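Researcher: We're teaching a course module on how sequence relates to structure. For the next exercise, students receive a sequence and then see the predicted structure as tokens, so they can try to spot secondary structure elements on their own. Here is the exercise chain.
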Amino acid sequence: MPPRSRRNETSNQGGLNEAAQLADQLQAAANFTKRDIARIIGRDPSLVSQFYTRNKGASFVPALREVLAAVQTASITELPELADIAARHITRRTTASGARARVRSKAVLVTPTGSGTGRVGAQAIASGSSRLRPLIAEAARRGLRLAFTVRLAKSGYVHPSGSRTDSPGIRRDVIQRADHTEERSYGSSATGGFDAADFARRVDGAGGDITAAIRQWLVETGRIHEDAQITHLEVRTWRPR
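Model: And here is the predicted structure for the students to work with:
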């Protein structure tokens, strides 16, 4: 039998590193899921899984300790509040020269003119589209406008394709896909779009879950059925004239 790689070994009692142990304690203390913990530390749920499988997470230990203390001593369980606590204790890795290490992820950029675009697919949708949260937060901070495009099953929409009641917006004609899904857009620079700050508040109210916040808006405004599920999402921002 080949020797086990030291990279995959853990030094803590019980076979779990400290990040995994803290994650376990958070799940036990507040009934959090790995997805919740990922939102708290601002990362993808797959990274939390790697606390257990690849011995990762050492850089998040200080933040997880503070979050666990906030849960246990102050009974704080709201994800946005815990995310704020965690953010103060998360530092980016540095290179040998002392420079901040690059993170391998798709950047979400808002230009000086206010133009920004972020897209997520099925995998990110399942984790709440957290990759788009910095875009929406920055747009809200700058007082920008916002529009979005959703893709879901054709049967999930309340109004038929091309209905002006649904107001597709920037893409006047809906985009129909071969897998029986449709893309429809809501808001545009021509119609004024939506207040990014309002959607940022909706996201906070949904515990940071952008998919849930936008889906709830679509249900509330009578555009999709309650059981409809978003499969793809795009958010665009711009500065109002």
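Model: If you want an answer key for the exercise: The chain has nine helices and six strands. Residues 177 and 192 are 28 Å apart (CA to CA).
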